[in-house]
Amino acid sequence: MISRIDLRGAAFPEGGIDRDLLPRAELDVEAALEKVRPICDDVRHRGTAALIDYAHRFDGVAIERVRVPAAALERALAELDPAVRAALEESIRRARLVHREQRRTDHTTQVVPGGTVTERWVPVERVGLYVPGGRSVYPSSVVMNVVPAQEAGVGSMAVASPPQAEFGGLPHPTILAACALLGVDEVYAAGGAQAVAMFAYGTEDCRPVAMVTGPGNIFVAAAKRLLKGRIGIDAEAGPTEIAILADATADPVHVAADLISQAEHDPLAASVLVTDSEELAAAVEKELDVQLEATKHVEDRIRPALSGRQSGIVLVDGLEQGLAVVDAYAAEHLEIQTEDAAAVAARVRNAGAIFVGAFAPVSLGDYAAGSNHVLPTGGCACHSSGLSVQSFLRGIHVVDYSREALAEIAGHVVTLAEAEDLPAHGAAVKARFDWKVPPSK
């Protein structure tokens, strides 16, 4: 069911492993751009009416309004299963513990006497938070979006999630309940590219936002790419993925369970095992068959995901080559199931999040580790980070110089301005000294 890629004995150039050798889902955001462009333009011009039309076309539901009434949020929380509420509350508590520690403080550097530069951290004023709602329901994504935004000090936030025919055109009630738990009262029944356009351009009901975050399908990713610049974005998140670096000490039951858990998301989800143990690879293959017998979503999600070109078992010569492979792959989620897993994890350079040892499965991070599960996919972890408090903060340099401090450096400023053939830049300094600039030291 799951393919093998044998890299044993392969010699890699000094620049590293060719990423094209590794499993990866096909994701053509460029092609999707042409599909989402007219949708976004339509929302820009017709606003709420366009959103209502797309709810009928894409979600198969007739709705009269897009904004979720406050009473629906209150009712969803009141009717929430107590066990689910307790689990969400604990997830929120742990997420706050971690994200509160990420808040940066302003810092002032005295460059010279009378001359300082302060880096001031200012939250984005208003954000749009996207929560998927297609094949599954993701109240955990409400937590992962809202908590870091709140801890950053964002003053205004709105959540969008697709309308559900089963629930009268509202988003799933568990998503609404999670919003209510977190004190978010601005929620919209809108999904896909049209939700991103609503946030970017605004409608009669929804004020425009400065930034959009959250995972979504290829059309959400394409809309983010299209509208980036008008809005800030966290990332163009694609199909979810897990890579597991394991040696002969790993338990094949654990490894197989974790590969399946990621494949459960979507037929395009990627599940990759990197190992130097052919015995472990064979045992995992057998265990996959065993566990699938007792698993839900096998034919519509898990089997297509595990058998797709995006998944596979990669055989390597040893730990060093295994580390090179996972760094080249730059997984959204990377599990380390090896001897001395913590030491191995410390050597990884590229991953959205790293899960160390046999008792830190990705599922823990999805819900209750305290970490964030909105992470870079498609190899973007080599240059991008997961969602955090920092995502919602902007650093602003505040420059404060006295007359004496400016006078000390004025000659250098004028010299550099003239070297760049920008004499007016120098004149702006000269004007402060009656055109007499003392020589810089």
Structure summarized in a few sentences:
The protein has 441 residues and is an alpha/beta fold.
Overview of this structure, please?
It is a single chain. By secondary structure, the chain is α/β, with parallel strands linked by helices. It has 16 helices and 14 strands. The strands form three sheets. A six-stranded parallel beta sheet has the order 1-11-10-9-12-13, sandwiched between helices. A five-stranded parallel beta sheet has the order 6-5-4-7-8, sandwiched between helices. A three-stranded antiparallel beta sheet has the order 2-3-14. α5 links the parallel β4 and β5. It is globular and about 85 Å long. The mean pLDDT is 94.
What features would you highlight for this structure?
alpha/beta; single chain; six-stranded parallel β-sheet; globular; five-stranded parallel β-sheet; 441 residues
Task: Please write out the topology.
Blueprint: E1 4-6, H1 29-46, H2 48-59, H3 70-78, H4 82-100, E2 107-112, E3 115-123, E4 126-130, H5 139-152, E5 156-161, H6 173-181, E6 187-189, H7 192-201, E7 211-213, H8 218-227, E8 232-233, E9 241-246, H9 252-263, E10 270-275, H10 278-292, H11 298-307, E11 312-315, H12 319-329, E12 331-337, H13 341-345, E13 351-356, H14 362-367, E14 393-401, H15 403-419, H16 423-430
Q: Considering DSSP H and I runs of 4 or more, what fraction of the residues is helical?
A: 40-55%
Largest sheet: 6 strands, parallel
Structural class: alpha/beta
Question: In angstroms, what is the radius of gyration?
Answer: 26 Å
Lateral arrangement of strands in the main beta sheet = 1-11-10-9-12-13
How much of the sequence lies in strands comes to 15-25%
Mean pLDDT across every amino acid position: 94
Please count the helical segments. Answer: 16
Task: Return the string of H and E elements.
Answer: EHHHHEEEHEHEHEHEEHEHHEHEHEHEHH
Distance between the amino and carboxyl termini: 72 Å
- As residue ranges, the low-confidence spans are none
Principal-axis shape equals globular
Number of E strands: 14
